[in-house]
Amino acid sequence: MRRMGRRKGMVSLLLIALSCLCGLGAVTGAINANLPSLANTTWNWLGPFPATTAGIGGDVLEAFGGIKAALEDLKAGRDVLCPSDITQGGYANWSNTTSGEDGFVQLNYSMVDFDALNDALGPAAYSVKSWAVANFEVPDVGETGSYLITCGGVSSFYIDGHRLSGDVYALGWWWNGDNNILNGEWLLQAIQLEPGTHTILLSARFSFKCMFIDPAVHLTPSYDTMPEVFVPKRHQEEEDEQGKKKKDEEECECKAKEETEGKSEGDSKKERGDQKGKAHTDTPSKAKAAGKLSSSDIHMVSAATEGPLDISAYAASASTRPRPAGDRATELLHVKEADALSLPGRSSNHTSPPIVLSTAALRKDGERKGGGVIARKTQKGVKVDNLVIMRLLGEFDIPKAHAPGLCFHVPDIVEGRLASPYLMLPLLNAATATAFDVRVKTTKVRQVEVTYIDSKNQTSNDTQKQQKATELTTKDRDEDKGQDSDNEKKGDDDDDGRSPPVEKEKRVRVHPFKGDISVAAIVGPPRTHGGYDGDDSRNRQKVPSPELIQILPGQAYALGVELSVELSEEEDAALCGKKISTVEVTFEVTASFNDGKDRPAAEYTLPLDCRSFAERQEYRFTFLDTDNSVQYATIKLPQTDCTCPTTTTTSTGRSGSSGQREATGEQFLAMAMQDEDEDGGEDGGCSCNVLVALHGASVDAGSNDWYGAVPSFNKTFVILPTNRGAYGYNWESAGKQNLISAILALKRTLPGVPEESKASFRADIERLMVVGHSMGGHGCFVFSTQFPDTLMGSLCASAWIKRDEYSFPTTNQDRSYTDRLFRALLAASQQAYDTDILSTHLVGIPFLGRAGGADLTVPAYLLRRFVRVLRQREFQYTHKYGSGDIRFEMKNWPGAPEHPVVGDSKTVLYSEVPGEGHWWGEVVSAQDLTPYYEAVLKDGQGGTEPLLREWTTTTPNVGVTMSGKNGLVILQTFRPHQQATIHATLEPPTLDSQEPKTWTLKLKTHNVRRFGLKANMLQLLSHGRDTSFSAEDTLYLLVDDHPIPFKIANIGPYLLPQAHLCTSSSGWDKCDDSWWSTERNVANAGPFGEMMAQGAVAVIYPRVKTEGVSEEEREGREKLASAALSMANRLFTVGKYGVLLFDDETAVNKMELLAEHRVSYVVLGSPPQNTWSDKYWERSTLGRSLIGFSVDHLFVGTSKFTEPDIGLVALASVNVTDSSSSSSSPPRRRRAQAGEGEGSSFRHHPFYPWCQDTESLTPACNTPDLHGMVIAAGTTWEGTLLASEQLPYTQMDWLVLDKRVNWQGYALCGGYFAYDWSLSALSSMPCPSEGEHESPILSLMGLREDDMRTAVAESRRKANVTTDGVDKDGGRKSASAGGSAQRTLGVA
Q: Where is the composition biased (Basic and acidic residues) (predicted)?
């Protein structure tokens, strides 16, 4: 949906629970004179220029010396014009503008006619960028440590040449109509600056905002709980060790009634004011006595020091500030305007709520009486080099854990139990030393009770009742039970836990928790061996050695925590009582630092919301993704349980019923035909459908705007995953893996479902319906086309088909310099997500496209086109076979035309609502959609539709399109990134056929080298048919006219994951799984973004050295270290990654530990530059690929590059395990075999059918000792840095670059590796050759793939390289510094 909801952002401080600053948008730039300021600052900017929307490079200025030369012109006062395609007149020059009080800068592009550009270029017209530069002063404050700065709207920025990470999506911006209101959820960066003048440089599109953060004002105020903000007397005496003392009871009201029954208004105010004045007197001493705060932590607000009240600003902001529906944190913040006081050093127009005092502390004339006490721990100074407490400012008074992009991922509490045990604390190391041995513990747990009182009908008894203590003893709570007024009960009934009635006043109490919530473990990277990491019954991942987690200075890290809950033995002990709405948990984070310096702990209080399963309230749960990062999703429960139907199903199984299976005489046939979820397990329960709802860009899965727009259903789970962020990954690569991980977590643990109800609420994840909007509509296309065998139907709204048609790359610089063939090869890596090509998988499956006729964001044309393509595919089938096999049909679907449509499609429906734009509230939930939902879901008994007699399984890339269609899975292709297809025709026996029957399956393959038959293929082939398999039947498999007949009872050895079919000179036959460790497969087919999504990410860079190296090398090492840090922070910002950052020497020392974990490696530096690269190059597949290095030469085949600043990017697979202890065989989970007795079940992985481990979260399940790797290397340090700019999302398997790529967007050569990791001649752009030697790639053009290995071996011989790394004279080549011999190559 178009910018609906809040964009995510990350704000953090040293190992602080990286919190978000809502409200920074209105904060004056520098309210502390000791802090550097970017408010009211003059920015010089140059532009606009066309920006690259895809591909590599493309900065216009680079051809003229880059921004460095332009800055020299600016400094010298030369008014120089630069060519620009998009400005009227064709030139751009330097302009200047001034930032606002909050540091916000809007660039004025009055020289651009965007209407004309939009007519010519479409959305690409807005792909523009400008360079902006400003100077700022740093005062001499006499402190040590780092300043904190944030820049939104930019991917990176530079201070004095030092690169820092920006919030690329400006994730703290709230979209309100046509205006951007900056509420401030930003990623913080730490930098050390000396006093004096400094320069900030950045590249932005239309606007940006940079500001320094004052930790004393914006980060450290920490109000432990909402009621304690109103602090008449906030600290109670501790109970004595016998527990006999009662805690003091003090008044804590958010809104005091102005009138009390039996008293005049003036008397009431006077009495309450006197009470508060007394309370204020003894608070500091009690706080100090309790050991919680020192006198320096208490700030007195008094008329003598503060001057008159200023409540107008907050009153104005409270009436205009957006309040998302269902925001409990905002509820706690809602106060009367008379409750607000200004604080010292705070801007009068601050949109965050000032400290609140009861109205009893005020006089009518606006003067204070008695003042108030604000308790907080204070950050001294403006620099940070320690753990600090960060306060959530602005719209929320306590962290709202699931606001879009907010940093904390926490589970809800459902029926008194954590929905899941995992929590994510985002950390930033703002210290000057590396942090390690990170430790987390809880220090306080409290329960918050919230009730609402009807202000019009409230009685005096109600008022007195609400003036009780904030922390009640057990006796007090027992006395209160059953004594609430009718008004209170009515308020509670109206409160759904997320959206309180505005007309009611709030009363808040805090209770001590009877029990303990503790940290059971820190979650580390996933293991290479073992089962599902997040299942308590299997191998959960706890870090065995804390040295794997280290956080470099300036690095943001998503730390996973596993929680444990213990309740006391008291009768009423529970996480959430009757009226408890939130449980507040205070976390303390500590670490060790490599400088040996002790630093105080970071502390933050997080709320866990209480939800009701019985009332079918939606809730959030957390889970471990493929990298073991803690992600979350929202669940909407089935409105009724999934009771088994009374009728018994037959072996058709998947046609809808979930009852008993047909009994046969052959145990294996029974296992092969069964649906593992049909019987629900040993207790006989049944399964629910699962509907997956995918959100659009800038929208959060926890936002009521999204989950409130998706309907609930009987006997169907609705799950709303996150895409790892509000923008995330377009539901591709890591976004798609996040979706699958959420579905698997739902299946395995049923998070939030009480144990006693799980038998009736099982989830069948092979009966899925997918719904999505905008970016989520594209995700709906992606999942539907890639996993059709799990699909019941789809509803894709306002969707785009593929990126290059949604955002046309017409402004890319490479279009003017790059060979069309090379551009085509580059585009080939992206076609795996061309969903219209894969739409052949949807033939026969219900599909509804939904669009607004006036949509200007994602034009309805795109969805119309997809629908037309799908209808053409279906018509081709029905024209040949008739429509009898397609049994789904709707007569009156939304948007149905009055007249017949050519082709008369039954399953492909389209609904366009005239006059509606990109989003309207009922886009996926309007009443007219109900019949479609009902037809697909079938009241919880939905199932995939009957099999067609003819279909096509296709994939452009086996590493992306994995699951196949109707039981056929392509595992390997001859030519990479080219479409591969299997066209299937099934000839079932006729109804009058005699027993045993013969089934014929004819397969015609194209570009397929290996394919597999799913374990549930028999089920898929027979469901919904009038006849089914028997044990004595024969399946006659005819593959490219090569016959493979076998009896049904003997089909097991031919099915995945036991075996697959491969081609050879003698035709097709059964093959084993030994090829997984030697050839390219679904786990390492690339691009690297896909491989990176399969586990944790480690970035390895050359260690920074200052002694014994040249100035060029020292600078090169520093730049690569900075590039590694920037890469880690970018992955954190977009996808909440906890990236492992190691210098090369540290990584080599930790390899024994790293090898035990599922990690993909990003390596910066060639073998002469990087120790890790030098050691593991020979264990990687690069040796087979004819790519090598000498000290300053790069070899690709026999092409030799000796020029300086040449860069190489290459994909590889590497075995980092010690060969003496490694095992090449994939892990095998114990599975039942035929004839093992009653109750055995033949299980299969629903998404990765080749996996021996049926619990695997990742497709890299059969290659535990092989790790994905991408390397950036160069002939010089600058060449390596050039290559590193393409990471981690490189598209082709290998590229050779020089500096021209920065403005041409053109590589010298590049391409893909073949199935055996050799250079693919048919999928590569030839490299230039040197001297008389012809490029090996060029010489192989036109050769058959089977003949290439011979030619490659010959080229290796000519290149003086053999497969074992020994030259023709028997001597091993040297790669040590100072040597000149060619780098030797080895074979993994």
A: 235-285, 473-506, 530-539
